[in-house]
């Protein structure tokens, strides 16, 4: 039932002008729809408070002196000059508040849907934690500064529908009751709509959605992003342009194109889309994981070596894959490809991978590109470095690799784990191992090129036949770090 119709029926019931058929309509809606029941109780709370304006004014005065815990700030009273309210006034206010709420709960009891969870605070007639959307708000960077734009409701210590959370500095983690987490990156403005829907007004977020919350939606000025069990990022700039990036799983992006045609786009792991200020969609070619990381910038000890990655392939509207730059991310069990959930880099033996690769910037390439004979990948490096290519030993080295790079004689392993492709077939049923030398299925040779100054380096195709090789890996380590 929509809010206007519910308000009309509730008002009629309170002033005893409701018709019998309207009463049946109200009772049916309250019995069958939990959201209608919640809204109904909110209306009754307002009516109760209107009967006790003095108590309401006392509460609003208290807000001026003490911010709620949800704002992330704490203040103390500077004196004891507040005159106590007479006990008789408090008692009378409480009786009037509880009286109207008892009438409200009586209707729910009469139609058999009152539950013990739907309790009410006798002193303030505010909703209980059932109405609270978030379990916790936690700064995850030392410089985090944030606050909540609160609407004028009679409540305390609750983040509820309609609240806008603004992060002005650092990063803030929001934890939902269903286990999902959203990290807001400053500057950001995030509006709570319900426990399954929110709106990003400005800024960037990274969402990790639990299995219990599939269908969680994020609204943007240009689209609605619907989770299908995943980890994804969303960014909205000052013009309303929107980026959507899928790190794991799938999302549906429903474009706001105001036409009758079906404008939904499914994005899978390793795919991303940019919607400009007028809603035109295009591929995002590369992303820097530092942009969406929950780590603070201080956690990265060196400047980025790789700043951009591009290719010469025109992707289709259903294949919007990107390259992911992972600063200082090369380590044991690092994920190798943007479109494979289990492939991990590891040392071939328990001794580990070549130590000069550890802590390097690396690129998660798109493993499906291994079969493309015309692909050319360009890597932009911003500082002098050693650029490494990790090439599958099952393939002969192509001419571009032998011409521009030198074989180090070292190898690195790939733990392919169980993985699923777009035809939903599972490959390599064995589990992923942990650590070097564990569950290594493939070996790759390490090739190196010394890059003396900032430049763009071009890499060619694998020249692979229709078999089961892997797309090559890319790692860069600044000369200063070696």
Throw out a few tags for this protein:
482 residues; Jelly Rolls; 28 strands; alpha+beta; 18% helix; 14-stranded mixed β-sheet; elongated
Based on helices, strands and strand pairing, what is the structural class? alpha+beta
**CA(first)-CA(last) distance:** 66 Å
Secondary structure tally, helices: 7
Largest sheet: 14 strands, mixed
Oligomer: single chain
Q: How many beta-strand elements?
A: 28
Strand content is 25-35%
Gyration radius, to the nearest Å?
29 Å
Overall pLDDT score: 79
Using the alpha-carbon principal axes, give the shape: elongated
Indicate the percent of residues in helices: 10-25%
Tally of distinct domains: 3
Unreliable parts? 52-98, 113-130, 153-157
Structure description:
Strands 1, 2, 3, 4, 5, 6, 7, 8, 9, 10, 11, 12, 13 and 14 form a 14-stranded mixed beta sheet that branches. The protein has a 9-stranded mixed beta sheet with strand order 15-17-20-28-22-26-23-19-18. The chain has helices at 3-14, 20-32, 34-50, 53-65, 87-110, 289-292, 399-404, and strands spanning 134-139, 145-149, 164-169, 171-176, 181-194, 197-208, 217-219, 223-227, 231-236, 242-248, 250-255, 264-268, 272-275, 281-283, 286-288, 306-311, 323-326, 334-335, 344-346, 361-364, 377-381, 385-392, 406-415, 419-420, 426-427, 442-451, 455-459, 473-478. The chain has 482 residues and is of the alpha+beta class. The chain has 7 helices and 28 strands. The protein has 3 domains: 3-72 and 85-131, no CATH class; 132-284, Jelly Rolls; 295-482, no CATH class. The chain is elongated and about 90 Å long. A hairpin with a 5-residue loop joins β9 and β10 (242-248).
């Amino acid at each position: 039932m929509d809010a206007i119709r519910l308000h009309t029926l509730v008002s009629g019931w309170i002033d005893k002008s409701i018709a019998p058929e309207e009463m049946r309509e109200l009772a049916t809606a309250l019995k069958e729809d939990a959201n209608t029941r919640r809204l109904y109780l909110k209306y009754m709370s307002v009516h109760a408070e209107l009967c006790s304006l003095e108590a309401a004014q006392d509460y609003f005065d208290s807000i001026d002196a003490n911010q709620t815990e949800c704002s992330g700030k704490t203040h103390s009273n500077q004196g004891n000059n507040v005159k106590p309210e007479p006990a008789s006034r408090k008692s009378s206010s409480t009786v009037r508040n509880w009286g109207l709420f008892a009438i409200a709960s009586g209707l729910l009891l009469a139609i058999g849907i009152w539950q013990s969870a739907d309790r009410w605070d006798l002193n303030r007639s505010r909703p209980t934690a059932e109405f609270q959307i978030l379990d916790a708000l936690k700064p995850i960077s030392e410089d985090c500064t944030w606050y909540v734009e609160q609407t004028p409701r009679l409540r305390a210590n609750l983040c509820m529908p309609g609240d806008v959370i603004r992060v002005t500095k650092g990063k803030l983690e929001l934890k939902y009751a269903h286990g999902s987490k959203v990290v807001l990156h400053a500057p950001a403005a995030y509006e709570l709509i319900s426990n399954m829907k929110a709106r990003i007004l400005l800024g960037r977020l990274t969402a990790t959605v639990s299995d219990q919350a599939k269908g969680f939606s994020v609204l943007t000025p240009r689209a609605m992003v619907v989770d299908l069990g995943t980890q994804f990022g969303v960014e909205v700039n000052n013009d309303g342009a929107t980026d959507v990036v899928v790190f794991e799983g799938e999302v549906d992006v429903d474009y706001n194109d105001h036409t009758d045609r079906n404008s939904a786009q499914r994005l899978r792991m390793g795919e991303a889309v940019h919607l400009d200020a007028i809603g035109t969609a295009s591929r995002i070619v590369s992303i820097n994981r530092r942009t969406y990381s929950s780590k603070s910038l201080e956690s990265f000890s060196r400047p980025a070596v790789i700043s951009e990655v591009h290719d010469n392939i025109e992707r289709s509207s259903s294949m919007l894959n990107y390259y992911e730059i992972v600063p200082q991310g090369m380590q044991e069990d690092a994920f190798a490809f943007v479109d494979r959930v289990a492939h991990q880099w590891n040392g071939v033996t328990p001794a580990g991978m070549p130590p000069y690769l550890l802590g390097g910037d690396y690129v998660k390439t798109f493993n499906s590109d291994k079969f493309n004979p015309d692909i050319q990948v360009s890597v932009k490096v911003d500082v002098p470095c050693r650029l490494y290519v990790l090439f599958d030993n099952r393939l002969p080295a192509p001419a571009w690799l032998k011409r521009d790079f030198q074989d180090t004689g070292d190898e690195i392993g790939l733990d392919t784990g169980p993985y699923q492709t777009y035809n939903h077939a599972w490959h390599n049923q064995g589990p992923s191992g942990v650590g070097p030398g564990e569950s290594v299925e493939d070996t790759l040779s390490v090739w190196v090129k010394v890059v003396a100054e900032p430049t763009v380096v071009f890499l060619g195709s694998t020249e692979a036949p229709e078999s089961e090789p892997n797309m090559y890996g890319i790692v860069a380590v600044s000369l200063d770090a070696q």
